[in-house]
Structure formats: structure tokens, C-alpha cells
């Protein structure tokens, strides 16, 4: 069933923003495959941010690094529904995650840097969720997130993948 024919309003674009050095990795083919699978429902844009200010801030410590992450992400907050991935965020299942994608023109999902987010940034987001209690690298978190985005759209469009 195409998203246009679906009874569930679709999200036209999902931006994944992460504090990470843009680079090819072992996971790049998996990301591309999951993005391709999701393309029948929504456009995915993967935005990796790692500038000199973030690099220097991470050397200085947690508070400075978190402030640099906020500064890098804040320009993206105004035009979308914003979801932060955070270890202390709400644990939700795939069905609840699918609701976060419903009735949205654009969704931004933020993956923080090594020091996580400062409270000021989290308060500006519409939802703060956790992928689970396990600690995982950014690369693994992005793979899990992309799979859940596809699963969420599959749920919203009665696609058999989610079963």
C-alpha cells in the first residue's frame, strides 16, 4: 500500500542528526539498505555534524561538549517534530514509536555526542526516548534507529514487516 493510499497520515521526511564525523563505515551499506526500504514511505536524510568547535569542546569536558552539541543542533529545532535519543529517555515499543511518525510533515531525530545532551536541549525537544538500557555506539544506535523508522512506517501502513 502506498503512503498516499494509507489511512494513516505519513511523515514526508525524517532527518537523523548526529554528532559524528562523516565517514564511511562497516555499517554504511546497512544504513543505505534501510534508507532504501523506508523510501517508499518517507525520505531519510542522515546529517552528521562534527566541527572544530565540537572537537575542541569534547577535549575540554562534558559541560562544554554538551553546550557545543546544543549549539550545533538548535538551528534544526524550529521546523520539525523533534525527538532526542537519550539514555534517560522514555522506553517505548515499536507501536508507540510509530505514533511519533504519524501526522508529521518532518521529524528530526537527534543522536548526541559522547557526553549526551544538556537539559536545555532536551527541554526544547518534543519527545525524549531511549532505544533501551544497553549502551551502544552511535553507529549501532543509528542502525537500530533506521530499522525502527522503517518498522514504524510499516506499522502505520499495515505492511507485513512489523509482524
Total DSSP E strands: 5
- Bin the helical content: 25-40%
* Topology order in helix (H) and strand (E) letters: EHEHHEHEHEH
Average predicted confidence as pLDDT: 91
**What does the radius of gyration come to?**
16 Å
Spatial arrangement of strands, main beta sheet: 2-1-4-3-5
Q: Which structural class should the secondary elements be placed in? A: alpha/beta
Task: Please mark out the parts with pLDDT under 50 across 5 or more consecutive residues, or reply none.
Answer: 1-7
Shape: globular
Distance between the termini: 16 Å
Instruction: Please describe the biggest sheet, giving its number of strands, its sense, and whether it closes into a barrel.
Output: 5 strands, parallel
Q: What share of the residues does DSSP label as strand, in percent?
A: 15-25%
Count of DSSP helices? Answer: 6
Sequence-ordered SSE layout with sheet pairings:
Blueprint: E1 13-19, H1 28-38, E2 43-49, H2 52-60, H3 62-73, E3 81-91, H4 94-100, E4 106-111, H5 119-124, E5 127-130, H6 138-156
Helix pairs in contact: 1-6, 2-3, 4-6
Task: Note down, in words, how this protein is organized.
This protein has helices at 28-38, 52-60, 62-73, 94-100, 119-124, 138-156, and strands at residues 13-19, 43-49, 81-91, 106-111, 127-130. The chain has a 5-stranded parallel β-sheet, with helices on both faces. The chain is α/β, with parallel strands linked by helices and 163 residues long. The protein is globular and about 50 Å long. The protein is built from 6 helices and 5 strands; from the N terminus they run βαβααβαβαβα.
Amino acid at each position: 500500500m502506498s503512503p498516499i493510499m494509507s489511512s494513516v497520515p505519513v511523515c514526508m521526511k525524517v532527518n537523523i542528526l548526529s554528532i559524528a564525523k562523516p565517514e564511511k563505515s562497516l555499517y554504511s551499506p546497512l544504513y543505505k539498505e534501510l534508507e532504501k526500504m523506508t523510501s517508499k514511505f518517507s525520505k531519510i536524510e542522515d546529517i552528521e555534524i562534527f566541527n572544530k568547535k565540537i572537537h575542541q569542546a569534547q577535549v575540554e569536558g562534558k559541560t562544554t561538549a554538551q553546550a557545543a552539541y546544543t549549539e550545533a543542533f538548535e538551528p534544526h529545532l524550529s521546523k520539525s517534530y523533534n525527538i532526542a535519543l537519550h539514555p534517560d529517555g522514555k522506553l517505548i515499543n515499536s507501536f508507540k514509536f510509530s505514533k511519533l511518525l504519524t501526522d508529521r510533515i518532518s521529524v528530526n531525530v537527534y543522536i548526541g555526542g559522547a557526553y549526551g545532551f544538556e537539559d536545555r536541549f532536551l527541554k526544547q525537544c518534543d519527545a525524549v526516548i531511549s532505544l533501551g538500557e544497553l549502551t551502544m555506539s552511535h553507529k549501532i544506535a543509528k542502525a537500530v534507529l533506521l530499522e525502527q523508522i522503517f518498522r514504524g512506517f510499516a506499522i502505520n501502513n499495515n505492511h507485513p514487516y512489523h509482524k
